[in-house]
Amino acid sequence: MLKDLKSDDVVLRRLVQRNLLFYFIPNVIANTIIPYFSFKDLNAVHLFEGEYCIARFLLPMALLLPFIITFDILKKTIALSEEGKAGFVLPDNFIKNKFMFKMAGINGLTTSSIILLFMLLVQFSIPQDYSFNGKLLSILLGLFAGTLSVIFTLWPIKKVKGLKSA
After folding, report:
1. Structural domain tally of the chain?
2. CA-closest candidate to residue 152, choices 113, 117, 116, 100
C-alpha cells in the first residue's frame, strides 16, 4: 500500500506512516499486557466460560478497534483531500460523514462477526472443560490487535482513493 503512493502523495504517505506506528505500537502493547495481568490463572483460560474468559477481551476489541481506526484514518485522509494535500480529489457528491460511519460500522461489525463465528466453531470443536494457556493467548491477542491496526489503517485509504475515479 505504501509503495503505491506516488511522489505527489508525500503528505499522505507521512500521515499513513505516522498513524501506522501510532495505532500499531499501543494496540500491541495494551492488548498483550491487559489480558496477561487480568487472568487470575494463566493455565486455565476459557473462551466463553468464567469471569476471566478470552471473549471478554477479544470481542470488544474486534468490534471497536476496526471501527475507531477506520473512522479516524478516514477523517484525517478526507481532511487532507479537502485541503488538496492528499494527491487525489474526492467526487463532488461525496457525503463524508455517511461514508465514514458506514465504512467504520461495516468494518467493525464484519470483524466482530467473523471472530465470534470462529470462536464458536472452536468452542464446539474442543472438549468441554478444555482451557487455554493465558500467556500464549495474551501474545496472540496483541499480535491480532497489531494486525487489525495495520489492516484498518491501510484499507480505508485504499477505498477512499478508489472513490476519486467513481
Report:
1. 1
2. 100
